Request: fold
Amino acid sequence: MKTNLIKKRCAWASEGDDLMVKYHDEEWGYPLHNDNKIFEFLCLESFQAGLSWRTILNKRKNFEKAFARFDPVKVSKFKKTDFNRLMRDEGIVRNRMKIEAAINNASRFLEVKKEFGTFSKYMWSFVKNRSISNNIRTVKDYKPISDEAIVWSKDLKKRGFKFLGPTTLYAHMQAVGMVDDHMVGCFRKNK
Reply:
């Protein structure tokens, strides 16, 4: 006899939204160490500020194409013509300050990578190289920032990064597994 087991997920990963479910099940909270993927998440999180994550996920493929597959070397070399192209691209979020920040942050990202060997090594040092696991039981238990995000944000600001405040960075930390904020009972908790 076959039983149909339904996976229990975090409350925000609505069953009715296949894109959010796929993101939750396959990406959100997995410890990430690949520098290009980390750069992708930093860019996407900064564009998400003030918008829903669903909006960004729906435009993700467009962002990938517009930003040279999130290759920080290529993005760091974007010129005025690239900026103008991005400002006309209806497939992405056309916010002047966010586009300028993404191009700027690519150069800053490469500087950190040169200093530490990898951006991942630098990034994970803010959580002592291991995921912080929080006990999230209800949606109200989610917090918008952490002490680690505040400290990291200040360091990034000193290094010249833009549009990466503590709230944006905390969302990034959740996305890349620096923080395990899967809800208690979620099949992905502590995986």
